What does this fold into?
Amino acid sequence: MSKQRDYENIPGTYVYDAERGRIGYALNMFCMSLNKAENRDSFRDNEAAYLDRFPVTTEQRRTVLARDWLGMLRVGGNIYYTIKIAFCDGLTFQDVAGKMSGMSKEAYAQMMLAGGRSPDGNRYLDPTATETPHG
Amino acid sequence: MARIVAGIATSHVPAIGVAMDKGTSSNPYWQPLFEGYKPAQKWLAELAPDVAIIVYNDHASAFSLALIPTFLIGVAAKFPIADEGFGPRPVPAVIGHPELAWHLAESLILDEFDMTIANEMPVDHGLTVPLTVTCGAPAAWPFPVIPLCVNVVQYPPPTGARCYKLGQAIRRAIDAFDEDLRVVIYGTGGMSHQLQGERAGLINRQFDTAFLDGLTKDPVALTKITHTEYMREAGSEGVEMVMWHVMRGALDDQVTEVYRHYHVPASNTAAGLILLENRSPA
It folds into this structure.
């Protein structure tokens, strides 16, 4: 990218910006196709053959077939799109969120019931950066 | 003359729609959330608006990355329910208000807001969950709806300040419409939540509470929150709260908070709802 973005120091966050929009287009458009029931059936029948219809990269293809949810984000996946693969699998947003954050389904659900992940200590990649809570 | 009588802001978490559609809204997980919606439903039924403008974002349903309108208005007579990847929600189709919608489109564009105009589009949970939250599960929605979409999926969304100004322009357009219509406007999305990455599940009650307070006390100050601050403080998807500014901008400077409801969690999200009435005689 042409310049440093001030959101890049937010930890564990993949902002779907121009750079990701550029590299992720084909992957996300594959996901978009899963809005149609007949395409969902085709994908379930033969995932690899279905993916051949889209100009995705080798790594994008791998992340889809492996259900590597974090990996998809790293190669330009947008969560509103990649979640459609999870819907095909009968998974929920919370299932996938737990997997991305490396927690068991139970631990993640419990964290949410207890009020969610705290922003404290999760605002900056660099832990020495100044914490500036919103008033 | 048409006039805006009230504003509603609410989260539009898809799981809330699923809970209603699958009949699980009274189970122990969902009951506290849905219980808190009852006063809003009663209030809205008594208010009985003639038409609603619902400001929301499409989630890869009507629009893909092939075409990304920053601001869009739906002028159709009817909007079907979208299949978002798990079949359409079993809710009534949304009836539009083409006459007012076209008036809004013309007025906004001539007022320097370059709206995209949609004659055909399905609507997704971003629009139907707010209807569920405020109207329950009727056989038909109780009023026509004008969908107004804001891009928040591809960075950058429009700024909060721009959204607020769009709301002000909507207000001017409504005030200039000849028919005697009572209009409510919804701002939807939020509150704090992050659906992606290792930081998924982030919730910031302090931020959300200050935001709810600020809507009445000092909405202009809220419009200065940057996208990065939303994402850092309220989660990457918390930036959806820019859409609440459209609603707020369309109201009087002075409003009365009628009711609020805040509950964690609704799946991955802090679900917030607030009802605001104009202080000028309605």
User: Anything to note?
Assistant: The CA atoms of residues 111 and 133 of chain A lie 21 Å apart. Helices of chain A lie at 18-33, 37-45, 47-51, 58-65, 69-74, 79-88, 93-100, 105-113.
